[in-house]
Design brief:
Blueprint lengths: L14 H6 L10 E7 L8 E2 L7 E3 L1 H13 L4 E6 L19 H12 L4 E6 L12 E2 L5 E2 H18 L3 E4 L6 H11 L6 E8 L6 H7 L19 H13 L3 E5 L5 H8 L6 E5 L1 H12 L5 H15 L3 E4 L2 H9 L5
Parallel strand pairs: 1-3, 1-4, 1-12, 4-5, 5-8, 8-9, 9-10, 10-11, 11-12
Antiparallel strand pairs: 2-3, 6-7
């Protein structure tokens, strides 16, 4: 005989009652929209084959896309540069050129959309002839402290262009404190730091590297990005980033590392961001386009899962579509 006192289904009987007990909610205010930008004059927007629906955007395309995103309720974007090969050097000096691609894009966005929160990526791989997030020694080692000196110049350059938040994704040791000190010394005390705290050496980044042509020219990134087998290490990283002055911490990728999001949520009071990366997007798109999955349902379910794990902020290429589906009253 079923215990008549224990019937959880009573709280699932209809939408109103289910709403009483809904523990996690999802809205466009949780989304950051990642955008790729180029400054070639011979082409407009360039579709990214492995990321259907995403493009390397011209400046006109960038402004049009952000205008649409704002109309969909998206309040924040993060910018990634597709830099010409001629500008990629071993010292990555283009990373802190005040007339470079990202500073010009930031100024254009802030001029047209003053209330938009603009986040910039702080790392050297788009500008580095070697394709690594840090400077490379002659023997192939990734140089930590020398890289940080360049990252500080890059962050200050972005702040002076009008960036609201700089987001170091390089995984060099000690860079959060160095960036905070460099920003504060130039009067940018209100510019936030969103640190890629637990960025794993993942196989899910492939389409992103195609989009920016930023794959490493040799070796891999395992000496600075985290081992996917490790969880406790993420707690050490978040303690360091919090002590160094991070305002928001990041887990990347999101879907395969929901347990890490949860562990960090239980370990810090800082806001937590999670990046639903290019490979996650590409899988959902491919399966949906083949008719194997209901795209709207699985996308919203995946985003809700990231929120349920403990993320306050989600970087997702689905930001606009998800925002529109939610506006239509769709429940994940």
């Amino acid at each position: 005989m079923i215990d008549q006192l224990s019937r959880p289904r009573r709280n699932r009987r209809n939408a109103v009652v289910r709403g009483f007990h809904r523990e996690t909610w999802l809205g466009p205010e949780h989304f950051v929209y990642p955008l790729f930008v180029h400054d070639r004059t011979d082409v407009g927007d360039v579709p990214i084959v492995s990321m259907p629906g995403c493009s390397r955007l011209s400046f006109d395309g960038l402004l049009t896309e952000v205008e649409g995103a704002r109309a969909d309720g998206i309040g924040a974007v993060v910018l990634f540069p597709a830099v010409a090969d001629a500008l990629k050097t071993r010292d990555a000096a283009e990373a802190f050129n005040p007339q470079g691609l990202i500073p010009r894009a930031v100024r254009a966005l802030k001029a047209k959309f003053p209330g938009l929160v603009v986040i910039t990526d702080v790392a050297l791989d788009p500008y580095n002839a070697d394709g690594h997030d840090g400077l490379v020694a002659d023997d192939g080692r990734i140089l930590n402290d020398e890289t940080i000196a360049v990252l500080c110049k890059q962050a200050v350059c972005h702040a002076e262009a009008g960036a609201d938040i700089v987001s170091p994704s390089d995984m060099m040791d000690g860079r959060v404190q160095a960036l905070r000190e460099a920003l504060d010394a130039r009067g940018h005390t209100e510019v936030g730091i969103l640190s890629y705290t637990a960025k794993y050496a993942s196989g899910f980044y492939g389409p992103f590297r195609e989009a920016l042509d930023s794959a490493p020219r040799f070796g891999d990134k395992k000496t600075y990005q985290m081992d996917p087998a490790n969880a406790r290490e993420a707690l050490r990283e978040v303690e360091l980033d919090e002590a160094e002055g991070a305002d928001i911490v990041m887990v990347k990728p999101a879907g395969p590392f929901l347990d890490i999001i949860r562990r960090l949520r239980e370990h810090t009071t800082l806001p937590i961001a999670a990046y639903q990366v290019s490979g996650e997007y590409a899988m959902l798109k491919a399966a949906s386009q083949n008719g194997w999955l209901d795209e709207r349902r699985v996308v919203l379910e995946s985003l809700l899962g990231i929120r349920r794990a403990g993320a306050d902020v989600i970087f997702t290429y689905y930001a606009r579509q998800a925002a529109r589906w939610l506006a239509e009253g769709v429940k994940p």
